[in-house]
Amino acid sequence: MFKNLEEKFRIHCNTKNLELNPNQINTIQKLKIYYKKNFEFYPLNFFSKKISKKGFYLYGDVGVGKTMILEFFFNLINKKKQRIHFNEFMLNFHNFVHNNKEKNEENIVRKFVKNLRSKYSLIFFDEFQVTNIVDAMILGKLFQEIFNQNMKIIITSNTKISELYKDGLQRDQFKPFIKIMLEKIYRA
To answer: At what angle do helices 5-15 and 66-76 cross, to 10 degrees?
Structure first.
């Protein structure tokens, strides 16, 4: 299915009358390599706990086609999946916390992710950004549990992982999240 990914992308862009640029083609080639390492040689690899890289993070300026490229890729994956704006995802998490009155933070994170895992194997987070301290403090535990539950993610953002929440309050407490992401995510 992904053998001719670049050709399929060119056809997709042509059909939608979209202009291609070399950076988009380069990203498609990286996605193809990513797919081959995680899907082709061992078809279940992408959803195997043994794979150390559990997702793909695409960042760049506004309007360069990040969402279009990952949406194109996402639509080709035949798994239980969800596409969600990152802010909506965090609102869902906070609502879950509010409705479940669990005192132990790790238990509530685990319950939330298990609930997600029962519905999805792959989540596409669009417009990933961290702007408030509440989200910043929970993301490390939340994403570690997502990876522990063997969920896969693909992400678009306007910011490099290392620069997320750059000037935020108590950023030192956010650094474990950055470390987790750098270890678990392919970046382009």
So the answer is: 120
Asked whether the beta carbons of 29 and 6 are under 8 A apart, the reply is yes
- Nearest to 93, CA basis, from 127, 116, 125, 118: 116
Q: Which of the residue ranges 40-54, 112-126, 136-150, 167-181 would you say has the lowest mean pLDDT?
A: 40-54
**Going by DSSP bridges, is the β-strand pair 152-157/55-59 parallel, antiparallel, or unpaired?**
parallel
Fold of 5-187: Rossmann fold (3.40.50)
Task: Give the residues across from 123 on adjacent strands.
Answer: 82, 153
- What are the boundaries of each domain within the chain? 5-187
List CB contacts of 162: < 8 A, sequence separation 6 or more: 178, 182
Question: Around Cβ 45, how many Cβ atoms within 10 Å?
Answer: 15
pLDDT digits (tens, 9 = 90+) for 76-115: 888 899 999 999 999 999 999 999 877 787 899 999 999 9
CA angle, corner 135, sides to 128 and 115, nearest 5?
85
Q: What is the pLDDT of residue 43?
A: 45
Q: What is the pTM of this model?
A: 0.87
Instruction: Please say whether the beta carbons of 162 and 32 come within 8 A.
Output: no
Does residue 173 sit in helix, strand or coil?
A: helix
